[in-house]
Amino acid sequence: MSTVILYGTETGTGELVADAISDVLAAEHDPSIYDMTEFAVEDLDTEDFLVVVCSTYGEGELPTGAEPFADELDEVKPDLTGLRFAVFGLGDTVYGETFNRGGEIMAERLTALGATQVGHHGRHDLSGKVKPQVQAKEWAEELTSVIDEG
Questions:
Q1: pTM for the complete prediction?
Q2: Which of 73, 105, 107, 126 sits at 20 to 30 Å (Cα–Cα) from 85?
C-alpha cells in the first residue's frame, strides 16, 4: 500500500506541513506528495492510504490550491468506497466558527463519495504557539499505526 499526501494551500504552509508529514511516514509508508492543483481525481486509488493537508482561506473557504481538486470531485463523483484517509487542517481560531473549515470541507467531500476518515483529525491553530510542522510531525507519528491497521 502506498501513501499519497495531497495538500491544498494558499500561502505555502500546507506544502511545508505535507513535507513534515512525509518525513515521518517515509521510513515505513513510502509517501508521495502532490499539490492538489496537480493531482487528478482519476488518480485516486482505493488501495492507497490518503493524507489530506488543507488550509482554510477567508471566511472558511477552501484555499485556491484545493479548489480544482474539490471541484473535480464534485463533477466526477468517483466511487471512493474502500479509500481510507486522514486529514490535517490548518486554520486560525480568530475566525471562530470557520476555524479549520478547509480540512473539514475536504473530509466531507471524500466521505460523501464513500471514503472512510480514520485517525485523529489534526487541526493546527495559527494563533497557537506550536509551529505547524512540529504539530504535523507529532500527528503523523500517531498516524503510522492507523495506516497499518488497514
A1: 0.96
A2: 126
Report the distance separating Cα 42 and Cα 38, nearest Å.
12
**Gap between the Cα atoms of 82 and 116, Å rounded:** 7
What is the structure's pLDDT at 13? 95
Cell matching residue 147:
495506516
DSSP letter at 12?
A: S
Run means of pLDDT, 10 residues per run, the chain, 150 residues:
94 96 94 97 96 95 96 97 97 93 97 97 96 97 88
Quick one: which of 68, 3, 54, 63 has its CA closest to 33? 3
Phi-psi region of 60 (alpha: psi -120 to 50; beta: other; left: phi over 0): left
**Going by C-beta distance under 8 Å and a sequence separation of 6 or more, which residues neighbour residue 74?**
109
